[in-house]
Amino acid sequence: MTGTQPIAVVGTGTGVGKTVITAGLTQMLRDAGHEARAIKPAQTGHPPDDDAGFVAAACDDPDAATCPRFLEPALAPRVAADVADEPLAYERIREACEREIEATPVPIVEGIGGLRVPLAGDREVIDLVADLEAAAVVVTRSGLGTLNHTALSIDALEARGIDIRGIVVNEYAGETLAERTNPDELERMTGYSVETVPPLANGDDGETTPREFAAGVSDALSPALYDRLPVETPR
């Protein structure tokens, strides 16, 4: 594949906050003058789940994100397609992503669950990241257990020759000893820089808007991460 190197926001598992981090990165890059757009290869659990819709709302622009395929069962894409008795071909997913990447100056591909989630046929999410020649930003949890999950994910990416640009520890509050020690330990274990993003929900009802989530992520991420991303300074 040729063209702009995409950024892949991948996770150590489901529910770690890939969509919120994707929204923040997309908005941060757009604020810096880049034509950034998020690409969700496939969305399961739809409705109500709509990660591309969340990113678009966060950026206040319907063109800020796209998703070529939706499946109703809230399962891994390959399993969801089987349960729904719908065709799902890996080549179609990959080609759809490649078209969007070629048309987007700064494409951001959001993963689906963890790296080993079955995508289509015998291919997994990590296969798509490798085939798209993306640079990965790894999103992980902050608490106990994240060292193992993150290190295994890093090992899997490195084994495929995937370029890793950093690790983001999401919902980092520093309330436990494990949380407070995990960022430094992850840097020691993996050799990659670690960013932290605090919990961003407002109040007991958690009624934080997508734009507020994106702004919080953008504020939390350091200029050093921005400098490591495969983007050129806009003219």
Automatic annotation (TrEMBL):
Q: Which residues form the active site?
A: 40
Write the record's keywords in alphabetical order, separated by commas.
Answer: ATP-binding, Biotin biosynthesis, Cytoplasm, Ligase, Magnesium, Metal-binding, Nucleotide-binding
Residues annotated as binding substrate are 44
Give the matching NCBIfam families: bioD (TIGR00347)
Q: Which GO biological process annotations does it have?
A: biotin biosynthetic process
Q: Which cofactor does it need?
A: Mg(2+)
Main location group: cytoplasm
Q: Is this entry keyworded Hydrolase?
A: no
The Enzyme Commission number assigned here is: 6.3.3.3
Question: Subunit details for this protein?
Answer: Homodimer.
List the record's Gene Ontology CC terms alphabetically. cytosol
Q: Where in the cell is it found?
A: Cytoplasm
Q: Source organism lineage?
A: Archaea, Methanobacteriati, Methanobacteriota, Stenosarchaea group, Halobacteria
The top EC class is ligase
| InterPro entries, per database record | DTB_synth_BioD, P-loop_NTPase
Q: What does this protein do?
A: Catalyzes a mechanistically unusual reaction, the ATP-dependent insertion of CO2 between the N7 and N8 nitrogen atoms of 7,8-diaminopelargonic acid (DAPA, also called 7,8-diammoniononanoate) to form a ureido ring.
What's one GO MF term for it? ATP binding
Protein name per UniProt: ATP-dependent dethiobiotin synthetase BioD
Q: In which pathway does it act?
A: Cofactor biosynthesis; biotin biosynthesis; biotin from 7,8-diaminononanoate: step 1/2
Lineage: superkingdom: Archaea
Q: Binding positions for ATP?
A: 15-20, 51, 110-113, 170-171
Which catalysed reactions does the entry list for this protein?
(7R,8S)-7,8-diammoniononanoate + CO2 + ATP = (4R,5S)-dethiobiotin + ADP + phosphate + 3 H(+)
Q: Pfam families of this UniProt entry?
A: AAA_26
Residue positions binding Mg(2+): 19, 51, 110
Give the UniProt family note.
Belongs to the dethiobiotin synthetase family.
Report whether Membrane shows up as a keyword of the record.
no
Name the source organism.
Natrinema ejinorense
